Amino acid sequence: MSKKSVYHFLSSLALLLITPFIVYYSIFLVKSIDFTLVKMKYVFFGFAFAAALLSFSSFLQWIYIFFHELSHAFLAIVFKAEIIDFKVSQDTGFIKSNKENIFIRLAPYIFPLACYLLLFIHFFILFYIRYYTEVAKDFYFSYFVISFFYTFITFYNLKLIFKETSDIDRDKLLLSFTLIINFYFFFSVLLFYCLFNGKNLIEKYFLL
Predict the structure, then answer these.
(1) Is 166 in a helix, a strand, or coil?
(2) Could you report the per-residue pLDDT of 64-78, keeping only the tens digit for each?
């Protein structure tokens, strides 16, 4: 076994060892989520509407490809890489950067970037409503939009993974899948925790 193979195996084992802690903290977040019927209704409609459109909308595929490549670019910038080229078409897309690692390659499968951008907009709207109207209202349409985006992004992620996407290096399969499962699971739970608890988080951390 080569040194690289040993390193990838040990890295995968380390990730598997922290999985129980990720699950434990995720359960803690789920228990802290402010579930209400009206919020769940908008989330359900978002899931259902996305599921209904998945087989019929080529525009959704273009949106997915755009955010897929944007996720690669975002992680590349986080790792201080320079983006050389960025292209998106109806059926495919790519980025070129002067640096590459497993996190940049797996970026779309470990972090739902589009949903977090929408979450940021949701927080901005909540802050605006609370600060300028002094009324602690929620903005329920965000629940529909974010759950809609989350559904089709997750669907296309799974579709690419099962088609053996080139983003996943065959020599790092175990490491890749442990990264995907741990990070995508955690960031998904965190996303909906922040979405459902947005109004309370605004009150607690931004309007002291």
Answers:
(1) coil
(2) 999 999 999 999 999
